[in-house]
Amino acid sequence: MALECGMNVHDFWYATDIELHAYEKAYFNRINQNAWLEGFYSYQAQASVLSGIFAKKKSDIQEYPKQPIRFINDNKTSKTELQKDQEFRDILMQCY
Predict the structure, then answer these.
(1) Is the pLDDT of residue 78 over 60?
(2) Which tens digit of pLDDT belongs to each residue from 17-71?
(3) What is the Cα–Cα distance from 89 to 82, expressed in whole angstroms?
(4) Among 22, 34, 37, 56, which lies 20 to 30 A Cα-Cα from 72?
(5) Backbone angles phi, psi at 46, to 5 degrees
(6) What angle do CA 72, 86, 60 make, to 5 degrees?
(7) pLDDT on residue 75
(8) 7: exposed, middle or buried (Cβ count in 10 Å: 0-12, 13-18, 19+)
(9) How much is the CA Rg of the chain, to the nearest whole Å?
(10) Per-residue pLDDT, 42
């Protein structure tokens, strides 16, 4: 169990019970977060399909996110990454 939690062999043999429980808690938190995120993406996919089927107007259709959802609010990094990505695409389009 300790190796599944990400604890190496040295830490397993020389760590206290408190440290082992901390690794275990972090491991289960990571599993729960991944399960929640997977469910959220599944919900978004199902909602976009069902809204496309049952929408009375095209404006009511919910679109699936075009980019991964970021939970860290780092606007400066996001803008520069988007700008770099757009510049790269522009350069590629000039080649064709």
Answers:
(1) no
(2) 888 888 888 889 889 888 988 998 999 899 888 888 888 887 778 888 887 777 6
(3) 10
(4) 22
(5) -65, -40
(6) 65
(7) 59
(8) buried
(9) 22
(10) 92
Q: Give the integer Cα–Cα distance in Å for 35 and 29.
A: 10
Q: Which amino acid does the sequence have at 18?
A: I
Place of tokens 């404006």: 59
**DSSP assignment of the chain:** -TTTTT--HHHHHH--HHHHHHHHHHHHHHHHHHHHHHHHHHHHHHHHHHHHHH-SSGGGPPPPPSS----S--HHHHHHHHHHHHHHHHHHHHH-
Nearest Cα neighbor of 27 from 58, 57, 3, 62 is: 3
Evaluate if pTM is beyond 0.85.
no
Of the two residues 2 and 51, the one the predictor is more confident about is 51
